[in-house]
Design brief:
The complex is a heterodimer of chains A (202) and B (799).
Chain A lengths: L2 E5 L2 E5 L8 H8 L18 E4 L2 E4 L12 E3 L4 H14 L12 H5 L19 H9 L8 H14 L5 H7 L11 H20 L1
Parallel strand pairs in A: 1-5
Antiparallel strand pairs in A: 1-2, 3-4, 3-5
Helix pairs in contact in A: 4-7
Chain B lengths: L33 H6 L14 E7 L5 E7 L1 H4 L4 E5 L9 E2 L6 E2 L5 E2 L5 E7 L2 H9 L2 E6 L6 H5 L23 E9 L2 H5 L4 E9 L11 E6 L5 E5 L4 H12 L6 E5 L15 H11 L3 E4 L2 H7 L2 E2 L2 E9 L5 E11 L7 H10 L9 E9 L6 E2 L6 H19 L3 H8 L19 H10 L33 E14 L8 E11 L2 E7 L9 H13 L3 E4 L17 H28 L5 H4 L2 E4 L2 E4 L4 E4 H5 L4 E8 L18 E14 L4 E12 L6 H20 L33 E4 L16 H18 L10 H5 L3
Helix pairs in contact in B: 6-7, 9-10, 10-18, 11-12, 13-14, 17-18
Chain lengths: 202, 799
Amino acid sequence: MRVNFTVNGRPQEADDVWEGESLLYVLRERLGLPGSKNACEQGECGSCTVRLDGVPVCSCLVAAGQVEGREVVTVEGLAEYAKDREQARREGGACASGACGTSLDAAKKWEAKPGQDSQTGEGVELSPIQQAFIDAGAVQCGFCTPGLLVAADEMLERNPSPTDADIREALSGNLCRCTGYEKILDAVRLAAARQERQEEAV
Amino acid sequence: MAQHTRTVPAGTPTEVTQNHVKGGVGESTLRPDGTLKVTGEFAYSSDMWHEDMLWGQILRSTVAHAEILSIDTSEALTMDGVYAVLTHEDLPAAKNYGMEFQDTPVLAYGKVRHHGEPVALVAADHPETARRAAAKIRIEYRELPLITDEASALAPDAILVHENRDDHHSGHVPHPNIVHRQPIIRGNADEAAKRADVIVKGEYTFGMQDQAFLGPESGLAVPAEDGGVDLYVATQWLHSDLKQIAPCLGLPEEKIRMTMAGVGGAFGGREDISMQILASILALRTGKPVKMVYNRYESFFGHVHRHPAKLYYEHGATKDGKLTHLKCKIVLDGGAYASSTASVVGNAASLSVGPYVVDDVEIEAIGLYSNNPPCGAMRGFGAVQACFAYEAQMDKVAAKLGMDPVEFRRLNAMEQGTIMPTGQPVDSPAPVAELLRLVKARPMPPERQWETAGESADVRALPGGLSNTSHGEGVVRGVGYAVGIKNVGFSEGFDDYSTARIRMEVINGEPVATVHTAAAEVGQGGVTIHAQIARTELGVQQVTIQPADTQVGSAGSTSAGRQTYMTGGAIKNSCELVRERVLEIGRRKFGSYHPAWANAELLLEGGKVVTDGGEALATIADVLEDQAVEVEEEWRHRPTQAFDLVTGQGNGHVQYAFAAHRAVVEVDTELGLVKVIELACAQDVGKAVNPLSVVGQIQGGTTQGLGVAVMEEIIVDPKTAKVRNPSFTDYLIPTILDTPTIPVDYLELADPNAPYGVRGIGEAPTLSSTPAVLAAIRNATGLELNKTPVRPEALTGTL
C-alpha cells in the first residue's frame, strides 16, 4: 500500500508498504529517518517515541496505515518543531504542529543546510532540550535519547515548570540503561530553567 | 582468558606533566558525538542501510537440549523474496568459535545445548519475509536429559554437555561439566576458626541478570570485490571478533574489514560474537549486503548473561570484631557454552573475601556447563555475585557481635599494603574505611516525603507509586550499607594491551592531532577522554577522533573498567612519542637559535613549543610546516600472573577499584513493595579524567545493581531450561520512577602505576549497590532475604 503523511513538516509518501509494518519501520527503513530507535519494538521502552498529531506515541505500536494523512514529528525534526513553536507563541501564528509547509517536491530534494556538517553535527541548531541533554551529560550510549527528547519536550510544552516528580512521571515510559536517570533529570531541569530565564528576558 | 607471557616491557608514565591545556585531562568536556546523538543522526548498528540489501533472520532452537534428527528447509526456500536458507551443512569453514574456548557452533550441528541456540539462517528481501521463511523450516528434535544445576551436572550418570573437551582447562577440572575450578588456600582456616567467638554461615542465591542494553544486536555485512567482507557492527572488541570470524568464513583476517557502528550500550553483552559471522556468511553466499537486527525477544537469546550463582559462606570473628577466617564455595552456572566463564570463576574466587583483611581462607569457585542460557561477561564480572554474599555475611556477623555494621566493616577494612588471599599485595590506595565513612556521613533523606502540605499523599513518593497502593500505611524505612572490591583490566597473565595511532600535522596554520584506535565507544565516553588526553599531551585544541576499525592495532576490550587506563595509556604513550619527534624536528631546525632547545625541559602548549619556565620557543606550525608526525604503538599495563591451580596464589590482578553505597528504602510491608529513596555512592576514581562522565558511570552502575536487588532476573524454568521472560514486559529494568536520587562522592587517590593515576570506574558501583539495597530491606523488615531479586512474595511470606 501507499501511505501519505507529514513528517517533520514535510509531506512524505511511502510506497510498497506491507500492511503489518509499523510507523517505526516506515520511518527508519523507508524514509531514511532512523533517529527513532528500535530498542524493544513492543511499546515498553519508549525509544521510538514520536509525536503523532502532537501526541507522544510509541511508533513501534502504530501501524503504518494508521498515520495516513496525519502529522508526525520525530527527533530529526525536533529542533525545527521547537523553533516554530517558539515563533508561533511569540507571533501568535499557527505553526505549533510543526507542519509549516514544505512541498513534496522540496522534501524530496531536501539537503542539509549550508554550514551544517552531517558527519560531526557541527553548526546544527538544537532545541533547548537537545542542548540541555548534551550539557548535563544525559547522553551516554544515546540509544534512549531520541525518545526521551521527544517525551521531555512534550512535557515542557505542557508543563514549563515541572517538579522532579512531574519529570519522573512524564518520562516513566522511557527506559535508559546507561545513566541511572540522574543526568536526564538534570537536563530537563536545565532546559526548564533556561526556558524560564528566556521568558523573563522577553 | 588464554594465558600468554608478556614480551614487551610496560610503558611507564613520564614525569612530564602538560596541564595548562583547555579541554584537557580533568575537565568535564562534552561528548564529541553529543550533537549527532541528540539529533538522531548518529548511526547505530541497527541504522545501517545499503541499496539492495537483504535481511538476515536466525531460526533458534525451541528446546534446550536435544539431538537434531533432521532439518527440512524446502518449504522456506520456495517462498518469494527468499534468497538463502542455510544450515550447518552450508558453513564455509570452521564450525565453532568462541572467545576463550572454541566451543560454540556457528549453527547447531548434532545437537542443541540451550534454548534459543541458532540452528538455521534465512536471507530475504524484507524482514517479515525472512521471519516467515524461518518459521517454515522444520526441525525434528529428540530431547535429551537436562543439566540445570550443580547436582545434575555432577551426578554420577550425568550426561556431558560437551564431550571430548580439549580446551586449556579440561586437563585440571574434576568433572567435564565443570568449565573451570579455582581454589584459593591461604593460612589455615580450620585452625583460625578455633579463635572465633562467633561463626556465621549463609547460603545465597544470585539470579541471572541481563545486560539489557537498549541497542539490539545488529549490523550490516557487505560482500567485497576481493571476496572478503566489510562488516559494520556494534561490539566491545573488534579484534577479538575478527580473530573468531576469520576461521569461520575461511578468509584471511585482512579480507574482513570491520568498522565500529554506533553501539547502543554493552555492559559485557557484546564481548562475545552475536550476528557477525552469520550476517557475513549470508552476504558472501548471496553476494548482497545483509542487514541483521535482533528484536528484543531475540536479544534475550542473542548474548550471554550474568552468571547466576549459589554461594556458601562461613565467616568467623572474635568478640572484639576481628574476622578470623573465611570458607566459601561459589558455584557459577556458565550455561551451555563457556564464553568467559573461566575468567569469571577466577574473579569470583580471587575477590570472594571482599575488601577485608582475612588471613586464613579456604575458597573454591567453580563454573558449570549446563543446558541453561550461556553466561559470560557482565559489568562486575564474578565480583558482583561474591559481593552480594560477603556483604550479607558482614551484616550478620556484626549483628551477632552486637556491633554497628559500618564500624564492623571499618574495623576489618583492607588498606594499601593489605595482602589479598592470592598473596598479592595491594600496592596503591585502598580507602575502604574512608568510603564507608563518606556514605555514612551523608545527611539522611527526609522522612515521609509523600506528605504534602494540606493535601493528600503524593503517591509518586511511595512504594507502589501511581498504582496508589498505600498512602503511607504499613510503610517502614530501612538503611543498609555495602562496600566492594573489583579488579581492573584483564588478569591472570593475559597479555593485555591497547594500540594508539596519533598523527600531528598543521592544517590551515593550526596544529591538529588525529587519534585512531580500535577502542569501542559503547557510551562510556571514551571518545571524549581520548581527545582530552591528546590535547593535554600535545598542547593542541583541535583533535580529530577517527572511527574505530581494524585498520589499526587492537585496543583490547571495552570491559573490565580498562579502557581509560589502557587506551588512555596507549594514547598518552603515543602522544609522548609524537611530542618527542616534534621536539626533535624543532631542535634540528631551531636548536642553534636558543640554548633552551638543548638544556630546558620542553613542552607543547597552546600550539607552541615552550620551556617548563613558560618561554615560547617556536610555534608547532613553524616546527612542522608541511611535515606530519605519526606514531602507532602498543601499550601494556604491568604484567600479571596466573593463579596457581591448587593454592590460587599469584599476582593475578593489575589494579583494584573500590566503591561503597548507602541505601535508604521504604517498604510497604503489607504488599511487599519496595521504594528505594536514595542510593548514595562513594568511590575512589584515582583521577577523574572527565568528572561529568565519571559521575554518570557511577550512577549508571549503581542503577544496574539496584535492578538486580529488586526486579531483574531472567527466569529459566528448571524443568525445561527454557527462558520464561524474554521481553521488557516480563524482564523489568529500573525506570526513572524506580530509580532514586544517587548522590556521589568521589576520591582521587592516584594509582602511581596508572596513567594520570586513573582507576577503572565502571564496574565497582555495580557491586555494592545490590547488597546495600538488600541490607536496607532487611533492616526495614527483619527478614533474612538471601536471594536476588527481592520480590514482593519474599517480603509478604506468600512465596
